[in-house]
Design goal:
Distance between the termini: 29 Å
Radius of gyration: 64 Å
CATH topology of the largest domain: Helix Hairpins
Keywords: Coiled coil, Signal
Number of strands: 0
Protein name: Trichocyst matrix protein
Strand content: under 5%
Number of domains: 2
Organism: Paramecium pentaurelia
Shape: rod-shaped
Largest sheet: none
Length: 356
C-alpha cells in the first residue's frame, strides 16, 4: 500500500494524450478519462493505475488506495472547514476589539477636543484677569507714590508757612510791645533827626520813632490794628495747623485704604494665577489625552485594515483550496466508479495512452 502511495505522489508525468477512437460504446468513457487528464491529480491517478495494472496488482489494492486518498481529502476539507470557522471567529473577535478601540479613541478625541476648547477659553480669561489685576496694582502703586510726594510737598509748604507766620506774629508782638512803651506827641523835627541817626539798620526802632510823632489816639488806633493783625495771623496759623493735621490724617487713611486694596488685589491676582496654573495643567493634560487618542485611533484603524485584509486573504485561500479539493474528490469518485463498472474500458484506454 505504501508503495502505491509513493508511486502516486512521485509521478509527475505531463505527457500529451492522443487516442484514436471509433464510434463504439466506450467513447463516453474515453472522453471522461481524457477530461481527467487535464487535471494534475487525474494524470497522476491514471499513471498510478497503469503502473499497478502492469504490476498485476489486485484491483482491491487500487480501490483501497483511491478510497484512502478520497477519505484523506475529505478529512483535510473537514479540518480546513474547522480552521476556517475558527479563523472567522478570530477575525470577528479581533475586528470587534479594533472597533472598540476605535470607538473609545474617537470618544476620547471628541471629549478632549471639547475640554480643550473650554479650558483654552478659561486660560485666556484668567490670563487677561491676571494682567488686569496687575495693571490695577500698578495704578495703585503709582497713586500711592503720587500722594506721598504730594503730601511731602504739602507738609514742607505748611512748615514754611508755619515758620513764616510765627515769625510775623512774633514781629507784630514785638512791635506792639515796643509801641506801647513810647511817648506820643514827640516833636516832628526831633523824630526826623532821630530817624536819620537810626537809618535802615533797625526798622522796628525806626517805626517806633515815627510812631512817637502820633497822637495818643492815633497810637492807640495803630496798636489796635496791629493787635487785630496778630490775632488774625494766629487764627490763620491755627486753621492751617488744623488743616495740616486733617490732611495728614486723610493721607494716612488713604494710604491704609490703598494698602487694603493692594492686599485684596494681590490676593485676587494670586488666586487667579493659581487657577490659571491649574487650568493650564488641565489643558496640557487634555492636549496629551487627545494626542494619545489620535495615535491610538490611527493604530487601531491601521490594525483593523491589516486584519481585514488578512482575513480576506484567508477566505480567498480557503475558497480556492476547498474548490481544488472538491475537484480532486470528484475526480477520485469518477475513477472509482469507472474502475468499478468499466475496468475493461480503462485498460484499453491506458494501453492506447501508453502507446500514443
Amino acid at each position: 500500500m505504501k508503495l502505491i502511495l509513493i508511486a502516486l505522489l512521485g509521478l509527475t508525468l505531463t505527457q500529451a494524450v492522443f487516442v484514436k477512437r471509433s464510434n463504439d460504446p466506450s467513447k463516453a468513457i474515453f472522453t471522461q478519462l481524457e477530461a481527467m487528464e487535464e487535471h494534475e491529480l487525474g494524470r497522476k491517478l491514471l499513471d498510478t493505475i497503469a503502473l499497478q495494472l502492469n504490476n498485476k496488482a489486485p484491483l482491491g489494492d487500487i480501490a483501497k488506495m483511491l478510497q484512502q486518498l478520497r477519505e484523506n481529502l475529505i478529512l483535510n476539507q473537514q479540518e480546513a472547514d474547522q480552521k476556517h470557522a475558527q479563523d472567522e471567529v478570530d477575525c470577528e473577535t479581533e475586528i470587534y476589539q479594533y472597533n472598540r478601540r476605535i470607538d473609545f479613541a474617537s470618544n476620547e478625541i471628541t471629549e478632549s477636543t471639547q475640554e480643550i476648547q473650554t479650558l483654552s477659553a478659561k486660560v485666556e480669561q484668567l490670563t487677561q484677569d491676571v494682567e488686569d489685576k496687575q495693571v490695577q496694582l500698578d495704578i495703585l502703586n503709582e497713586q500711592e507714590t503720587q500722594i506721598r510726594e504730594q503730601r511731602a510737598e504739602d507738609a514742607e509748604s505748611f512748615k514754611t508757612f508755619e515758620n513764616e507766620t510765627e515769625n510775623v506774629i512774633e514781629a507784630v508782638e514785638v512791635i506792639i510791645q515796643r509801641l506801647s512803651s513810647i511817648q506820643p506827641d514827640q516833636e516832628v523835627l526831633a523824630a526826623l533827626t532821630q530817624l536819620n541817626k537810626i537809618g535802615a539798620s533797625n526798622p522796628i526802632l525806626a517805626l517806633m520813632q515815627v510812631a512817637s510823632t502820633f497822637s495818643a489816639e492815633q497810637l492807640n488806633n495803630v496798636l489796635g490794628k496791629l493787635g487785630e493783625v496778630s490775632t488774625q495771623l494766629a487764627e490763620a496759623l491755627e486753621n492751617a495747623r488744623q488743616t495740616e493735621i486733617q490732611a495728614q490724617l486723610d493721607f494716612e487713611a488713604l494710604v491704609v485704604e490703598i494698602a487694603s486694596q493692594r492686599e485684596s488685589l494681590s490676593a485676587a491676582r494670586e488666586d487667579s494665577e493659581r487657577q490659571l496654573q491649574d487650568n493650564q495643567q488641565a489643558l496640557d493634560l487634555q492636549k496629551k489625552r487627545k494626542e494619545d487618542a489620535t495615535d491610538e485611533l490611527n493604530a487601531a484603524s491601521s490594525g483593523k485594515e491589516q486584519k481585514e485584509a488578512e482575513c480576506d486573504s484567508w477566505r480567498t485561500q480557503y475558497a480556492e483550496d476547498s474548490e481544488h479539493r472538491q475537484q480532486e474528490i470528484s475526480i477520485i469518485r469518477q475513477v472509482e466508479e469507472i474502475l468499478a463498472t468499466k475496468l475493461s474500458n480503462v485498460k484499453v484506454y491506458l494501453q492506447e495512452r501508453a502507446s500514443a
